[in-house]
Design a protein that fits this description.
This protein is an alpha+beta fold. The chain is 22% helix and 32% strand. The chain has one domain: Double Stranded RNA Binding Domain, CATH 3.30.160.20. It has one helix and three strands; from the N terminus they run E-E-E-H.
């Protein structure tokens, strides 16, 4: 599996308004994440999960898929 050097990545976390659920739980904000791969300029935005760790894993998978696509070779 391809490993991307940490120096090639810019990781930014920002708040995303959460959805109000019955009873007032899960209100407020959850972590959105943007990862930019410096050498190619490919960016991945993920806001789908309330877990920053899971959002980061999804964004990294997106970056890997994009930079290993034949058009980048």
């Amino acid at each position: 599996m391809l490993e991307i050097p940490a120096d090639d990545l810019k990781i930014e976390v920002y708040p995303v308004p959460g959805m109000h659920e019955r009873g007032g739980q899960h209100c407020g904000y959850h972590p959105g994440l943007r990862i930019t791969h410096g050498p190619t300029g490919v960016m991945a935005y993920v806001e789908s999960n309330r877990s920053q760790h899971i959002n980061k894993m999804i964004a990294m998978d997106m970056i890997l898929a994009a930079i290993t696509h034949p058009k980048f070779r």
